[in-house]
Amino acid sequence: MNALTLQWHDAGQDKTQNIYEQQPSQNPGTVRIGRDRLQCDIVLSHPTVSGLHVEIFFDHQQQRFYVRNLRSQNPPVVDGRQLVQGEMPLTEGSCISLGQIKLNVTSISTGSIPATILLPPHPQPGVYGLECPKCHKVSPGENLYIGCRWCGTSLAAAVSVIVVGN
Question: How far is CA 72 from CA 58, 83, 86, 118, 121, in A?
Answer without folding.
Answer: 22, 9, 10, 50, 55
